[in-house]
Design goal:
The protein has 336 residues and is of the alpha+beta class. The chain has 8 helices and 19 strands. Helices cover 25% and strands 28% of the residues. It binds uridine-diphosphate-2(N-acetylglucosaminyl) butyric acid.
Length: 336
């Protein structure tokens, strides 16, 4: 089923709640709908809009936004221990996590409460608390706008990295994700290594799926603003990846700076939130935008902000971080 809308107000279709519009928006539920649309229309400018949680519109969009609305979750494989689940791109991410926890399936629990659609999850390989979507994804199905064919990529072919995948690279502007397949486990696989997770889980009585989900939700609710109340797109910047020598130079001056090793690499990841915080910008407020007071990586719409207001703040933050630490931070959010 596909539906086409013209002159669409995007205020409630982007979690920053910036007031912009789109010339056209097409909702689809299957690859056939997309084949139908792209073979007859061939739009010169288009972009995929999922739930709008990782996007900043800096102006009205004069092309076609393509938005998935299929939400089906189906079990397509089960060998008693490993359960394969296929989920339509338009499904809500946290509803999927909730479903997996209710069905005693391990793998997604650390990614509780991430605002996202399922189709957007592989694009930037959403991650939190020591887990990434790419750890459980076994395949991604997409519609190729050039060849008008439905394609299925294996996990390896998706080339997942830190907030990165083939969909942000070679397939950018070419792929519309239609469904994602996950391999979940009936065997417990608690992953409690990140920050306060182990302590919060212990306080709830130990490492059950329900306790882990509750602990993660509680940590997130404490640190991150609810986009339904305060417009934001989660972390606005990516954590920068630098060479060891750069990290060491900074550590000599700031011994308490967090540094995260990257498996299989001699580079390390720094915490952009910490860098911004150290510039004294946590809780900073301009007229209509600000830096969240509990997590400096999150920029917030204080009410009535435009995409331009958010970008002006982001630019100022980048400048200050570069002046102080000599490090360039880059947006994680897609700026359109
Ligand atoms: N920190 C500060 N001040 C701040 C923010 C952070 O000092 O204002 C320090 C923290 O104390 C900690 C370190 O920086 O030592 C890292 O902070 P945190 O654990 O909050 O994680 P993060 O690196 O800021 C990343 C993800 C989040 C994810 C958390 C938890 C990115 C860009 N962000 O944030 O993902 O929830 O880890 O795993 O990788 C998102 O992508 O939208 C997102 C929220």
């Amino acid at each position: 089923m596909k539906r086409i809308f013209n002159h669409v107000d995007l205020t409630d279709r982007n979690s920053f709640h910036v007031k912009q519009s789109a010339a056209t928006l097409v909702e689809f539920s299957s690859a056939d709908d997309l084949a139908d649309y792209f073979s007859s229309e061939r739009p010169s400018k288009w972009y995929v809009l999922g739930a709008g949680n990782n996007i900043l519109f800096t102006r009205d969009y004069d092309g076609v936004l393509i938005s998935p609305c299929g939400r089906e979750v189906s079990v397509i494989g089960d060998d008693g221990e490993r359960v394969v689940v296929r989920v339509d791109a338009g499904a809500d991410w946290d509803s999927l996590v909730e479903w997996s926890v209710k069905h005693d399936l391990w793998g997604l629990e650390n990614l509780s409460l991430i605002p996202s659609s399922v189709g957007a999850a592989p694009v930037q390989n959403i991650g939190a608390y020591g887990a990434e979507a790419g750890d459980t994804i076994i395949a991604v199905e997409y519609f190729d706008v050039r060849s008008l064919a439905a394609v299925r990529l294996s996990n390896e072919e998706c080339r997942f990295g830190y907030r990165d995948s083939i969909f942000k690279r070679e397939l950018r502007g070419r792929a519309v994700i239609t469904a994602v397949e996950f391999a979940l486990s009936r065997k417990p696989r608690p992953n409690l290594g990140y920050g306060d997770v182990a302590r919060e889980v212990e306080q709830r009585g130990g490492a059950t799926l329900a306790n882990i989900r509750e602990a993660i939700c509680s940590i997130r609710r404490h640190k991150l603003p609810d986009p339904a109340v305060t417009g934001n797109a989660g972390s606005f910047f990516k954590n920068p990846i630098v060479g060891r020598a750069v990290a060491e130079r900074l550590l000599a001056e700031y011994p308490d700076m967090p540094v995260y090793p990257i498996a299989g690499s001699d580079r390390v990841k720094l915490a952009a939130g910490w860098l911004i915080d150290r510039c004294g910008l946590k809780g900073y407020r301009a007229e209509r935008v600000g830096v969240h007071d509990r997590q400096a990586l999150v920029l917030v719409n204080l009410g009535g902000a435009t995409g331009g207001d958010v970008m002006a703040l982001a630019d100022m933050i980048c400048r200050r971080v570069e002046e102080r630490f000599g490090i360039r931070i880059e947006p994680e959010v897609n700026v359109i």
